[in-house]
Amino acid sequence: MLSEDDLNLTDLDAEELAAAWDLWFDLAQATNDDDPPYAHGVFVELRWEDLKPDRAAALRSTPVGERSR
Amino acid sequence: MPTTNVYFDLTEELNGDGRIAVLGSGQAVVWHRLAIMSKDGDWILRESPEACARALRVLEQHGARYRLGAPLDVRWLEGGWSSHLELTDERGRRVRCDFFTRPPRLSRAELASLFEDRDSPPVVSIEMLVRMKQTQRAKDYAVIGELARRLEPELELRWTTDPDRVLELAPELGAGSSRPAVAAARTGDRRAVVRALAEEIDEMQVRDRDRLRVYEEASRPFLATLAALPREELRLPEGHRRVLDIAERLLPKVPRGAEP
Fold it and tell me: Which of A36-45, B81-90, B224-233 has the highest mean pLDDT?
């Protein structure tokens, strides 16, 4: 999954590392619309279709006391 | 102007009045110079109201708004929830900022230590990062194998997901290991090592998925209500009050079955 080139970052100084990351970050913006909603945290398994507002009414009808302590 | 990593810069800003935030996950991988792999930032936040207030102030100065997630409030964070915000940098790039105080698989003592040594870099150690990466995502296990290579051989053998490294290290260092893959390696049975590693990874993925399911189920009404709001209403500082108000009504502070 990670090539030798991916792993050859130790020779870079801090400025070079930042420049490499910055360039990569610029390019990575192209996929923003296709990214999953979460990359970290407890919602990471959720997908956009799980978050659609039209589900709100049905979901709101579940009393919170039945899900929590 | 020299180029910088926006997430490293934000870390410095967050910690401007004292250590409250430590980089984890993908940006920690970048920090440790293993790979350039994450376009988001996630921080372990010190679990205090003051730390939450500081983080909100910094993010507000950057025009951040909430994404769908728990309020950046210690009452929910100590229940294991995560908070998710987003801002646009001066070059129009999307910057996603995720916060939690109870990352899974790290002990309370380890978390406390992150904020005690102010001379250490504001980033989780490689060994902590390995455990944080033991998620439900298959791709994280390749990263664990590479992270483990940066550890001392005894620790590498404890965490690596690479069968070749297990086979190489186990004969000399594996006598006391409880890992089935290490025991298999000491008999020289490569296929058994591969099977044992696959089963170990699967168990970790299932465990993590079960953990997340508890939060997912408990958050559905809350997230659905937030999702119905216009995005602009989630911009700080007002957005924080909106999220808090909805969380008070719909988001349990500790979901039933959770072990934060």
Answer: B81-90
Spell out where chain B has E strands.
21-24, 40-45, 65-66, 83-88, 94-100
Would you call A36 an interface residue with chain B, using a CB distance cutoff of 8 Å? Answer: no
What's the confidence (pLDDT) of residue A60?
46
CB A35 within 8 A of CB A25: no
* Cα–Cα distance measured from residue B52 to residue A20, given in angstroms and rounded to the nearest whole number: 31
Q: How far apart are CA B131 and CA B258, in angstroms?
A: 19
Task: Mark yes or no for CB contact B69/A18 under 8 Å.
Answer: no
* B137 touches B204 (CB < 8 A): no
Which of A40, A44, A47, A66 is the best residue to mutate to test the B interface, defined by the most B CB atoms within 10 Å of its own CB? A40
Give the tens place of pLDDT for each residue, A35-46.
888 888 898 888
**Identity of the residue numbered B224:** A
b/e B204-241 (16+ beta carbons within 10 angstroms → b): bbeebeebbebbbebbbbbbbbbbebeeeebbbeebbe
**Interchain contact, A43 vs B68, CB within 8 Å:** yes
In whole angstroms, give the CA distance from residue B99 to residue A40.
Answer: 9
Nearest CA in chain A to B209: A45
